[in-house]
Amino acid sequence: MPALEHDGELITESGAIMLYLTDLFPERQLGVASREPGRGAYLTWLFWYGSVVEPVYLLEVLGVAEHPAAQATFRDRRAIAARLITALETGPWIMGKRFTAADILLCTPYLYFPDATPDHPAVRDWVARCTARPSYAKAQKAD
Ligand SMILES: N[C@@H](CCC(=O)N[C@@H](CS)C(=O)NCC(=O)O)C(=O)O
Q1: How confident is the model at residue 74 (pLDDT cuts 50, 70, 90)?
Q2: 55: how many CB neighbours lie within 10 A of its CB?
Q3: For residue 50, with 0-12 CB atoms within 10 Å meaning exposed, 13-18 middle and 19 or more buried, which class applies?
């Protein structure tokens, strides 16, 4: 269960942890600071993960992804794929030229569930780029 305790505060939810850490360590340049161009897109990607991507895949597992209420609220895996593909066709990262915590967060489901990876070269190559980074190997080793 993703959780971070810092300065006596507990932070949960992967997106909130990412935002907390990238705001705390701006010098690592993995986030987009407040008032910096791209902050809105950065927040959108982080919140989209928890608010849409996770529910959509879970609703599929539960067999109710095609329910009209689910469609009207979250859309579906096709919409997720379309949004990723649109971003990654510009690429090479979700936010363009710059690798951010949004890449780390959004590629995660496809590391745990490779079969769920949208069947498109832009997405497959992006997942491969994410895992080819030395920091990925370092994190895996630490885990
Ligand atoms: N929305 C949460 C989901 C966290 C979550 O429930 N993760 C699951 C795996 S996908 C987990 O760690 N489960 C362990 C457990 O429930 O014991 C987040 O993004 O942090």
Answers
A1: very high
A2: 14
A3: middle
Residue nearest to atom 18 of ligand 1 (CA): 13
Q: Cα–Cα distance between 121 and 106 in angstroms, integer?
A: 16
- What residues does each domain of the chain span? 34-142
Ligand 1 atom index nearest CA of 112: 10
| Residues in contact with ligand 1 (CB, 6 Å cut-off) | 1-2, 13-14, 50, 54
CATH for 34-142 is 1.20.1050.10
DSSP the chain: --EEEETTEEEESHHHHHHHHHHH-GGG--S--TTSTTHHHHHHHHHHIIIIIHHHHHHHHHT-TTSHHHHHHH--HHHHHHHHHHHHHH-SBTTBSS--HHHHHHHHHHHH-GGGS-SSHHHHHHHHHHHHSHHHHHHHHH-
Q: What is the pLDDT of residue 67?
A: 96
